[in-house]
Amino acid sequence: MNKIVAVIGGGVAGLETSIQLEKLGYKVNLYEKDSELGGHAGKWDRLFPNRRHATEVIDSLTSRIKDKVQINLVATVNQIKRENGSFLVEANGKSQKADAIVLTTGFELFPASKKEEYGYGIFDNVITSAELEKMFADHGKPQSTTGKTPEKIAIIHCVGSRDEKVNRPYCSKVCCVTAVKQAIEIKEAIPTAEVYCFYMDLRMFGPGYEDLYKEAQVKGVNFIRGRLSETSEMEGSRVLIKAEDTLSSKPLKMTVDMVVLMVGMSPLPSTEKILKDLELSPNNDGFVQVKDYHLEPTHTKAEGVFVAGACTGPNNITDSVNAAHSAALEVHKYLTSK
Amino acid sequence: MKFEGKRKIWSDYQKEIADDKFYYVRSCIRQNIWPGSENTYLRVMRDVLGKDVYESEHHTTCTGIGYHTEVVPLDTLQTVVARNFSLMKDSGYENYNPSCVTSFGIYTEIFDTWHHFPEEKEKARKFLKEATGREFEIPKNLAHTSDVIYKFRNEIAAKAKYKFINKHTGKPLKVVDHIGCHYAKMFPAKGIGGAEYPYVLAGLVEAWGGEVIDYPERRHCCGFGFRQYLVKANRGYSIAASKKKFESMEPFKPDFIITNCPGCNYFLDRWQYALAEMDGKTYGGEGYGIPVLTYEEAAGLVCGIDPWEMGMQMHQVSVEPLLDKIGVEYDKSKKFKGKNGEDLGKPELPNNLKFCE
Amino acid sequence: MVNFGYTPLPTHIHDMDKASLTLADSISFEDASFNLCIACGSCTATCTAGSFTNFSFRQMCHQIKRGESKQAIAESEKCMLCGKCTLACPRNVNTRNIIRLVRKANQTI
User: Does A251 touch chain C (CB under 8 A)?
Assistant: First the structure.
């Protein structure tokens, strides 16, 4: 068998799809726009719900494709053309043939500066969940801009999720459990710290997630039901935050040393161009539209084009791995019947 | 604070402002409470910048105050606005230039309404025709007068006699910029710098040497709130809103407040007096309070126009401490003299708020 | 001072910078189940006292967490310690014990 499959995107879904297709005997061309494989998970410190190091998962995935598939790094796919029943994939000026395509382009973190009133990019100690992960990776604990250890930290849920004002009306699924995980990690790194989570609903949908929430409660993390309305910078680069404490129907304010924004998952803008080439359209939320949400979740409407991972909508690692398996099998069925 | 972050937002929210030939419309209340400011706008525009600004004596209220207090219905509001537009049509001017922030808000709201509900525009056309026989056209450009001063801020700076710099310390004066709610909160894209980090006044302060203070309650209403003030039973709410702002800005020790809205000017100034007399508390200026300037007065001061000619003796909070910091020359003895030297009489002195006689 | 016929309204915002959380801390120290409330309201729904008065165990816990100790202590007096809420709580909050701790705090304050 010498059929070729192009996998576009080298995050969890792309890596797992490549592993499975290679095992099924296909030649895989994996395209990754960054200089490293692993996607967003590769930049994360630890994973929910069991807080294993993200590198364990990513290293396991990358070690299994090493020397077995063609890895194209810093390779942005500029164009995909159909030609004689197959595809021509162009990246960095070089075109390669493919018999099937799997889109695993993933997502981008919601650009937090779009929520102007939260002051991200303006106030020193307003950071994102991704930046907090980096702090954990680099220093083992959060640090304010002055290098001081923050004693009072607010975690803000649903930043760029469930928010029509920034055109992100959907739930990003994983931010609630990420918030709880990070709150516990802050408590462990700085036992005297006060941590406040501002949530609207806590959507603990996966196995072990509710336990994690309960663990956070036991460790003294405070949960306040209400969405952040605005932040202001106080003296010493502290941040004043306001929300409604909806359980007592009263506005609430507090000054904290650091605000962590749980940025949601947004459609990756560069995926749009690929969809256009393939004559596909995004779904209502801007992610890749799958053929049948219930029955064919890794098919697209275009022949020979399959999809897996968070480019179809907010996803966790388990979902991405499952979708990758499914997509690989569907590619196999497609290519063997062709 | 990362200023580049703010600059990014400021550059995202810019709008088109006409360069010349303005059809100027006054505010209902400013001439009573801040009588020199609108005149100062005309002086700066005509004499300093050499612009063509036209006024019609037939112009009326936009009914914004009545609309926001729910005594004027939308149909009436639209018809009155349509009449004001028809006056502009008669004059041959196309760049509508209101001096009131609430009027500006009314016009932006009406444009948006007419965009989404064209039948409303047709209704206004019909009502105007029936009531007055007049016809109107939509202005080519709509800009608030503070937008226009913003546009020409660097030209004014180039001709400036004074700067917002403390002449004793050499440091920039610290300025609170307060933006009227109706300027951009309803339609952020219509305000320079948007609604969250408005730049329209901050840009003036920067261009003229001062430093803008970012304090926690910068977005909060001045306390006017229309109905909340107009009904006496609600005034405790109105003054509480102003108090919240003063308490929030006090630790930053502002040298003055600059605002672009008639109501804000009034309430931030007069409520300082009321709070001093109720609570015995003043929020700065060693008992004199924090001076409140309109953007026109600020421009006038920078251009070297005499403060008494601009009517600054009408402020409740004395402006003299600020004038002394900037180094503006003024004649103390002329504070309560009219234009022709006649005696205007002196106001009764407050008990708690210090006042320069 | 001049009487204008009105005065600034008092603010009704929860100012967490000024709230004293001593009671919350001491209860949570003595009985960690206090932290586990998810504000579902089962306790209040089943409450005998709550059917006839405005007593809400959920609200009382919330008051404690916002530093409104006085109100919470007054609320705790309405409880009859029947234990129905302990039966209903899905999170196993030891509700009777929380009431006991609030009342005990009242005696020591």
Answer: yes
CATH number, domain with residue A292: 3.50.50.60
What pTM was computed for the model? 0.94
Residues of A whose CB is below 8 A from C15: 253-254
Which chain B residue has its CA at the smallest distance from C10's CA?
B240
pLDDT tens across B231-282, in order?
A: 888 899 999 999 999 999 999 999 999 999 999 999 999 999 999 999 999 9
Q: Are A59 and A92 in a shared domain? A: yes
> Least CB-CB distance to A250: which of C12, C36, C65?
C12
Q: Is 0.90 exceeded by the ipTM?
A: yes
Beta strands in B210-332, from DSSP E residues, in sequence order:
211-212, 256-259, 292-294
Buried-exposed string A103-124: b where 16+ CB fall within 10 A, e elsewhere = bbbbbbbbebbbbbbbbbbbbb
Element (H, E) at A39: helix A39-42
How many domains are there within chain A? 2
CA distance C6 to chain B (A): 5
User: Same domain, yes or no, for A132 and A52?
Assistant: no
* CA–CA gap between residue B220 and residue B68 (Å, rounded): 18
pLDDT single digits (tens) A60-78: 999 999 999 999 999 999 9
Residue B33 pLDDT? 87
Query: Which domains does chain C possess?
Result: 22-108 (1.10.1060.10)
Mean pLDDT for chain A overall = 96
Q: Name the residue range of residue A217's domain.
A: 112-264
